[in-house]
Design brief:
47% of the residues lie in helices and 0% in strands. The chain is mainly alpha-helical.
């Protein structure tokens, strides 16, 4: 393996998690079920646009509104802490073959996103209002 640049520096995954969460959700409930709630087409808009497609679903799972919808499908009847642990366990399992295996939770980044994530909160409320998530 050839390594270049800052390859030993840790980093937060943030939006990199969108395709991973999509894969986890498809594995968990099946892609047919996932695509009842989110489309497959490019939106043509920015990643954080608050807009549904003509079929009243997010355009795809790789923009914020679609990623939030997909995340809502993972163990929706479990408490939030158990849902987090289920996802975090998947991430740790996927990182198990790499050295170093330092998949972790960054509380500073979480608190920053929680404080400043008003647009994502708005997306969540919009999805609730439109009946896209429970």
């Amino acid at each position: 393996i050839i390594s270049l640049g800052d390859c030993d520096d840790t980093f937060t995954m943030q939006s990199v998690t969108k395709p991973i969460m999509y894969g986890i959700t498809c594995d968990l409930i099946g892609s047919a079920e996932v695509h009842k709630y989110v489309g497959r087409a490019p939106s043509g808009f920015g990643f954080n646009k608050i807009m549904l497609g003509p079929d009243r679903r997010p355009h795809n799972p790789l923009i914020n509104i679609g990623a939030i919808t997909v995340a809502s499908l993972i163990h929706p009847n479990l408490p939030l802490s158990e849902r987090f642990n289920a996802c975090f366990s998947k991430y740790k399992a996927m990182g198990a073959g790499f050295t170093p295996t330092n998949v972790s939770f960054n509380n500073v980044v979480y608190l920053s996103e929680k404080q400043a994530g008003h647009r994502n909160y708005a997306i969540g409320h919009y999805l609730l209002n439109e009946g896209c998530v429970n």
